[in-house]
Specification:
Glucosamine-6-phosphate deaminase; binds 2-amino-2-deoxy-6-O-phosphono-alpha-D-glucopyranose; Rossmann fold
């Protein structure tokens, strides 16, 4: 779906999230949301905060699982996805702290594998993700599933692509400071969500969006796997859609 600008598109996505939260609340159930970081979803979160403060949207029944976190990463570091999520969403709404799940960048290396299995188990225990929102990296990654990721991959420790580290260099004051690794939900984890929305804005993403939507399905561009799911929608602005 192509919208004239990212503001309009972000409000539509926020509205879809709010509708799931409200529907689940009327059923007395939890809304289980898979969340993303990066610049792309910031206005979606801003709109959700507005719906909370101005229209009384409650997050009491919301359980969240974030896609990924750099590794290693101190929870309090400016670049941590914990800090990002608190800044843009969690500190502004009434979500219960115990309902927030983000991969832990502070784990000892030997504890990472068990943590990843537990992350998968916990998502299943909540009945799976109602909705997963995604951005897309210029390597075609979703979460931090870089080129080479298997379609059935689960939550795991991965090495970051050089282009991804280059794109993150600004946030870290130089590429040398960007962690070499990350913990990410897998392609298989993402695929289990009942609904998936991938968002992309501006012409910088037009090339990779074209490959993801129209290119051959291949591990070289992990976002192409999304072509194989019935439950995926790409939400784009005109610029990101300009090469389609
Ligand atoms: C990071 C995140 C991804 C995100 C991507 C795009 O690598 N791990 O989940 O989709 O960046 O970022 P941006 O939205 O800033 O373009």
């Amino acid at each position: 779906t192509v919208y004239p600008d990212m503001l309009t598109a972000s409000k539509v996505v926020a509205g879809r999230i709010a509708a799931i939260i409200k529907k689940k609340a009327t059923e007395g159930k939890e809304a289980v949301l898979g969340l993303a970081t990066g610049a792309t979803p910031i206005v979606v979160y801003k709109e959700l905060v507005r719906l909370h403060t101005e229209e009384g949207l409650s997050f009491k029944n919301v359980v969240t699982f974030n896609l990924d976190e750099y590794y290693p990463m101190a929870a309090t570091a400016a670049q941590s996805y914990k800090v990002f999520m608190n800044k843009h969403l969690f500190s502004h709404v009434d979500i219960e702290p115990q309902n927030i799940n983000i991969p832990d960048g502070e784990l000892a290396q030997e504890d990472v594998a068990a943590f990843c299995l537990e992350y998968e188990r916990k998502i299943s225990e909540y009945g799976g993700l109602d909705l997963q929102i995604l951005g897309i990296g210029r390597t075609g990654h979703i979460g931090f599933n870089e080129p080479g990721s298997a379609p059935n991959s689960g939550t795991r420790l991965v090495s970051l692509d050089e282009l991804t580290r280059h794109d993150a260099a600004h946030d870290f004051g130089g590429k040398a400071n960007v962690p070499a690794k990350a913990i990410t939900m897998g392609i298989g984890t993402i695929f289990k969500a009942r609904e998936i929305i991938l968002m992309a804005w501006n012409e910088k993403k037009a090339g990779i969006v074209k490959k993801a939507v129209e290119g051959e399905v291949s591990a070289e561009i992990p976002a192409t796997y999304l072509q194989l799911s019935e439950n995926v929608e790409f939400v784009l602005d005109t610029d990101a859609a300009s090469l389609l």
